[in-house]
Amino acid sequence: MNALEELAETLSRLPGIGKKSATRLAYYVLNTESTYAKTLANELSTLHSKIIKCSECGAYTETDPCHICSNNLRERNVICVVEQPQDVETIEASHEYHGLFHVLGGVISPLDGIGPDQLSFSKLLERVKNGGITEVIIATNPTVEGDTTALYLQKILAETGVEVSRLASGLPVGGDLEYADRLTLARSFRGRIRL
Amino acid sequence: MNALEELAETLSRLPGIGKKSATRLAYYVLNTESTYAKTLANELSTLHSKIIKCSECGAYTETDPCHICSNNLRERNVICVVEQPQDVETIEASHEYHGLFHVLGGVISPLDGIGPDQLSFSKLLERVKNGGITEVIIATNPTVEGDTTALYLQKILAETGVEVSRLASGLPVGGDLEYADRLTLARSFRGRIRL
C-alpha cells in the first residue's frame, strides 16, 4: 500500500466518506499545491491540544471558561441542556437562545452501557443549586435515549424547585404532512397549541 | 475563528465537502482519539514528498520507474494514453488491460489556456519511436476536450506507423436506453457492432 492508498484508507474512516470518495479526496490533495496538505496536517495535529472542554458547561472551547460562560451579557438564569458539544453551536446558530448551556456528553443508553454516572448530571445539579438558575431547558434529541435522559433530568431536578422545560417536538417547518412519520405526527397532535 | 472552525474551513475546500459536512468531519476528528488526527496529519504532510510522478509514464508512484513501467510481465508493446494519473488506477482496477500507460497530465483545452506544449505529447512520441510499440490506445474522456486531444494524438502518431485506437463510447453496461442522453445514444449508433 503506497502513501496515497494509505491516506485514502485513513480518510475513508471519516463518517460519510466511502472508499471511492476517500480516493478522490486523496488525489485532490496530491494534485493541489502541497501548502494545502501542510495546512490541513498542521490544523489536525494541533486540534486536540488547542480545543478543550469548558470546565463549567462542557462545551468545546479554546479558553476556559468558554466565551458563553464568561459572557455577562447572556441570560445567566437559564441553562439549556444538550447531549453533545456540537449541539451548542447548532443552537447558537439559530440566534434564538441567549442563556447558558450544559453539555451532558451523551445520553442514558443502557444498551451501550452508558448510565447516569458517565454523564455530567452532578455538575448540572451543582450549577443549578449554586447560582440563581430559574429554568432548565432540556434540548436532548427527540429519540428514545433522548426522551429517557429528559425524564431522568426532570426527576433529579424536581427537588431543586427550578422550572424544567423541553424543546417542542413536531412537524419541521417547511415539511409536509405526507412525509411526516407516525411518531412525529403523534407528537405534534399531543403537543398541539391552542390558537 | 477557533481551531475547530479553522479545520472545518480548510476541510470545506475539499471537493464535494460543503460547509456543513466539513463541520461534522471536524467534530468527528475532535471526538475521536487524538491518534487518528495525528495519523491523518502525518500522512498528509508526507504525501507530496513520498508520491512522485514516474519519469517514464507520468503515473503517481513511490519508486521511479513505477511498478508498471518496471514490470517485465506487462505487454510492453501497447501504451494506453490517459488524461490524469488517477485514470491509471481506474483502468488497473478493471483488470482488462495489461500493457503500459502514458499520462498526458490533462487535455487540450484552449479555453483554459492548455495547448499541446503543456501536455506530455513529445515524451509519448519519443516512447513510441524508441521501443517496439505496436499499438496506442487512447483513453481520454469522451468529452469535447477528450475528443480534441484524441484527434490531435491520432494526427501526431500517424507518422510513426503505430496502430492507434480509442476506447469505445456508448451505453454504459446496466444502463437504460430511457436515461441515455442524445449524444451517448448517437455514439452508440455510430459505433454499433455487427453481430
Poorly predicted runs of 5 or more residues of chain A: none
Number of domains of chain A: 2
Radius of gyration of chain A, rounded?
21 Å
| Fraction of residues in helix of chain A | 40-55%
Let me know the average pLDDT of chain A. Answer: 93
The CATH architecture of the largest domain in chain A comes to 3-Layer(aba) Sandwich
Oligomer: homodimer
The total of helices of chain A stands at 7
Strand and helix layout:
2 copies of one chain form a homodimer.
Chain A: H1 3-11, H2 19-31, H3 34-50, E1 52-53, E2 60-61, E3 78-82, H4 85-93, E4 100-103, H5 121-130, E5 135-138, H6 144-158, E6 163-166, H7 182-190
Parallel strand pairs in A: 3-4, 3-5, 5-6
Antiparallel strand pairs in A: 1-2
Helix pairs in contact in A: 1-2
